[in-house]
Amino acid sequence: MEGRLDGKRALVTGAGKGIGREIAKRIAECGAEIFALSRTQEDLDSLKAEVPNINIMNVDLQDWDKTREEVSKIGHIDLLVNNAGVGCRLPFIDTPKEEIDRLYDVNVKAVFNVSQVIAKRMIEKGEGGSIVNISSIWSRTAHPDASAYSSTKGAVDNMTRCMALELGPHNIRVNSVNPTFVITNMTKGQEHTVTSLLERTPMGRFAETKDVVNAVVFLLSDQSCMISGESLRVDGGLGVY
């Protein structure tokens, strides 16, 4: 079966709900041993009840040292998905320092932190690996009230390319997945807030969770063994503008 991940060990951040939860479940279905990280114990407990063989980790990614300590405990990881993220919709001139710090702590600094720990282990083992960073189409386009969020995703895109450059000699691939607005249980009913995106989407629909999950699993698997440093848009063609 294409996309199988048998024998691999994978870590997914932000795995308690939404896209991250579905990514973790799919990776487990594909045969990998999965470590699911979230700051919300209740979400982890329900995930564990649903998929008993998943290993759960209750970690607040805004705590740099604690994150490093806990991630170091799990040993070698072959596949990493930096999915955890937070958002903010405020005008540029009204965005307070506290919100900027929160977004950069989770969306950027946590990617640095977790990836550093995991990449070092990958290099030590010498068998390569794959890292997928969840970014956004907002990394490339301007939207009202999104300067803080968009700037973090722009940072993720360029970090992805730099990581691919430096880690490539160790056979570690690094890519990002850049979705449009994704319909999840958490975002249902919010479609009206981004109608302008839908109007400019050639395929005429927003993404579903499975669309993002499929892209992530492809980039983790050997089916994409020669792809690195790419930002894969999952946007129904919106990015052609």
TrEMBL record:
EC numbers for this chain: 1.1.1.10
InterPro entries per the UniProt record, alphabetical: L-xylulose/Carbonyl_redctase, NAD(P)-bd_dom_sf, Sc_DH/Rdtase_CS, SDR_fam
GO MF assignments: carbonyl reductase (NADPH) activity; L-xylulose reductase (NADPH) activity
Keyword annotations from UniProtKB, A to Z: NADP, Oxidoreductase
GO BP: any one term: xylulose metabolic process
Record's subunit section: Homotetramer.
PANTHER family: D-ERYTHRULOSE REDUCTASE, D-ERYTHRULOSE REDUCTASE-RELATED
Family: Belongs to the short-chain dehydrogenases/reductases (SDR) family.
Protein name: DCXR
Organism: Mytilus coruscus
